[in-house]
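Hi F.,

I've been meaning to write this up properly since the lab meeting, where we talked about keeping a consistent format for the predictions we share between groups. The idea is simple: the sequence comes first, exactly as it goes in, then the structure tokens exactly as they come out, then a line or two of notes. No screenshots and no reformatting. I'm using this chain as the first example so we have something concrete to point to.
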Amino acid sequence: MYLHAGNNKNIKISDIVGIFDTDTATISKTTKHYLSECEKRGETVIVSYELPKAFILTSEKKKNTVYFSQLSAQTLKQRIDEPLK
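Output, unedited:
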């Protein structure tokens, strides 16, 4: 299964480590530092150039990637939890 993160970007659900709200998660200096280091290493993907409301941390084959999405963390979680129709 895949999570549609916006702008035709789909992420394999089994690779998702966590979905985080940018307003609350980036208060921590540790999180800010981690995201900054990910950006320097080229491990970030900007799903949309709108203001990001959430970021999704994934890990696939020991490679971490952070996806910044214009969708809220709550909306992304609902998309995962929604039953197939």
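Notes:
The chain has one domain: 2-81.
Helices lie at 22-25, 29-40, 73-81.

If this format works for you, I'll send the rest the same way.

G.
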